[in-house]
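Appendix B, Record 12. Input sequence as logged:
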Amino acid sequence: MIDPNPAQAMETKQYVVGLQKYNRLHNIDDEKKSHPLTVHELSLLVNSLAHLNPFMAALLRFLLCACYLGCFRISEMLGLRWCDVALVDLPGGQFVSVRLRWHKKASVEKECQVYNLVDERAYPCLRVCGFYNDYVNAVGATLMNVTKDAFVFPQVTCLINGSVKINWAKAMEQNFLRKQINDLVESTPSLSVNISLHSMRRGGCFYRVFESPERKFNFRELMAWCRWEDTKTCCEYLVTKSLSDAIDPRHLLQTRHRGPHGVNVEPTNVAEIVDQIAQYVLTHLQGDRTSSVPSSSPATPSELSAIANKQPPLAQRSMQDFVVPKIIPTARSAKDAWEQWFSVDHKNGRPCALKDYTKSMIKSDRKKYSERQTIATAFNKYQSYSHFEQAYAGYTNTYSNLLHEVRKRKRENTL
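Logged structural output:
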């Protein structure tokens, strides 16, 4: 137990508020830096709604739960209309259907994505169907005429007497919702002050499930659901996954090499293997593949050996056939990184030092080269490796520790 709690200290709150203001002024995306909300923290947040107005409590419960389960952005949730949300009952169970538009002027028929949110029964705070029913009942209790084009989460004004004023023609503002969450966090000591509007989306990604009944989808739908940062990231994932799927791990585990179909390979009888392969090639693969082997004269031993050692066309290929090998060598310690940066090693395939690499060689492994260049800023401060080792004692045994220490000293400007 720490007293005072650093998560609730006034200095920490002032720092967080200042940091958020700095991020907004300098266009820094705080979505990636936000605190990922856990289920336990969401449960505490939902429980803290008990003292609010019944309508506001029901609204926020459904909003937080749906945003967490669907991994939605707050702006997408606040832009929902009643025609975009429905409770569906099927023989297999019920779920809340949510339709998100890709932009403000999107057509309902094409430019939208439908998500079905199912109750997560392991946690009471994730039972979205129950929260939806509670919110619909709270809306009915207001005795107001709500159309299908009205916003699901309307503009709410809290009055002095504890009641609320609702405007269904306008959506709830993010600043109002941000203030409500901040008030709830301050009233709950167990919650971190770093919780923001993006925390629900970051934390709920573990509960998001995608199902395609037709077993097909277009590229735009995949981009919209997976929330890729850009098209390049999505394409890189698809290409990498296709390369990985092309390699069957069961073939990589085989130690015995099998020849073409119909040839039994036994490692103890090499002469019979050569004869069987040659006979199979001469009888079944006439044409282009056997034009170099005359049928009138017997094959020479060298030709038989070449045929025997030739890889079958349907054999499993390794990853090296698909991926370009890295040019920049791997360093296990600080000494390896020092030698590879300043010296040449023809035996290990390094014709020049890393500091003399050309631009085309750097492109083959740009990330690893940038790491070496960062470490080289520390190398250039010393005349020999012994002096460098004394200055970085305790961090030269592994490459990762050295890189972490150099980056730390570079940030602190103590290189």
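Residues 259-265, 288-296 have pLDDT under 50 and may be disordered.
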